[in-house]
Amino acid sequence: MAEMLNPARKFQSACFQPFRFIALGDEDHSRLRMALDAALDRGFLSSASEQIQRPPGF
Questions:
Q1: Residue range 39-55: mean pLDDT, rounded
Q2: CB 40 within 8 A of CB 52
């Protein structure tokens, strides 16, 4: 389950639709974390890496 947040304009021709997870199963959470870690390792999200905050214990 996800909650849609207020849209954010980044470019004149694009609008990002941010969201946050409200409920996520344990297995899905693990898959998401592994996918994000892999993307960060490959540098796909290098500009956003400072913005990603991991909860304690992850």
A1: 60
A2: yes
Distances from the Cα of 18 to the Cαs of 1, 6, 37, 42, 58, in angstroms?
Answer: 14, 7, 20, 23, 22
**Residue pointed to by tokens 């849609």:** 4
* Closest to 10 in 3D by CA, of 50, 48, 38: 48
Q: Which two tokens stand for residue 52?
A: 């990603």
pTM of the model: 0.50
Do residues 15 and 8 touch, judged by C-beta distance below 8 A? yes
**Residue recorded with tokens 């390792």:** 41
Distance CA(47)–CA(27), nearest Å, equals: 27
At 12, list the tokens.
């004149």
To which residue do tokens 């946050």 refer? 20
The rounded mean pLDDT for the chain is: 77
